Amino acid sequence: GSIARFKPKQNFSWNKKWSEGRGTGALQVAVRYSELDLNDSDAGIAGGEQESLTVGLNWELNPMSRIMYNYVHADFSSGVGADNGTLNSNLIRFQVDF
Asked: Is residue 9 part of a domain?
């Protein structure tokens, strides 16, 4: 195996006509589930817990740039029981790599 840069079949391009096969780049769908436990019963630390689900969509414009969107839903507890809650966030990032 080797490590290489991801390359879409067609780079995104505004310059071509649709009839000429305008480059659209590539789409990638991602899903992630994670858990975080900051409690340590041996040390008497009640740091809390968190579970989160992330759903993402990445648009690879060309081998050196992409736009990334993530939606994160997280449920957390403080460990003490007073500050429990839910977090919903939308994240958009643009990356240029050269």
From this structure: no
Report if residue 40 sits inside a domain.
Answer: yes
Residue 2 lies in a domain: no
Find, among 56, 47, 44, the residue nearest to 90 by Cα.
56
In a domain, 3, yes or no: no
Q: Do residues 58 and 82 touch, judged by C-beta distance below 8 A?
A: no
> Concatenated DSSP letters for 23-79?
---EEEEEEEEEEEEEEETTTTEEEEEEEEEEEEEEEEEETTEEEEEEEEEEEEE-S
Q: What is the pLDDT of residues 58-87, one digit of tens each?
A: 999 999 999 999 999 999 887 666 678 899
| Amino acid in the structure at residue 90 | N
Say if pTM beats, i.e. exceeds, 0.70. yes
